[in-house]
Amino acid sequence: MRIRNFRQSDIPILIDLQQLAAETDGLALEDLIDFAAWSTYPELGEAYTVFVITDDDETNEWGQAGTLEGIEGEIVGFTALSMRRDVYAYHFLCQGTVHPQHRKRNAGRALLICALNYARMISTEFEFEAEQLGQPLYLEALLPLNDPASVNLAIKCDMQPVDEPVMKGMRLYRREL
After folding, report:
1. Is 118 left (phi over 0), alpha (psi -120 to 50) or beta?
2. Quick one: which H or E segment has residue 75?
3. Domains of the chain with bracketed CATH
4. Structure confidence by residue, pLDDT tens digits, 85-102
């Protein structure tokens, strides 16, 4: 599997993937990221950094860092990372999914680690400010309640469940950066 940055041409695939995962996980479509609107209004996507994971041939020797031109697998998952700040903390929130047939193969873990690394890199821009204000920096992930692998994924990424209201069928997990 290989992780790469999102492209506008990925939108139809992400819409289909999100709908399939919503059916599997018992989620309401209106609670999910509105990728369809991104086609018409690309500026809506500017609040997110999106990474996709593909099912590239694992025997190719290009590794995680590159893709051989013209050879690329199907998208099997994504994570969309957004940042917000409230009076208590800075929050990097991951929302995404992995195709149900590709779950339990570490795709979700790879996406979450990618988001964690990106959040760490971006947070350096305001880490000093947060420290001065005494505000923590958090990586958070919305994971489906109906997927038993969610708890294991959170544990592997050192994330703890948080009792805050979130969309129906999801649980919020958090770790400090």
Report:
1. alpha
2. strand 75-85
3. 2-176 (3.40.630.30)
4. 999 999 999 999 999 999
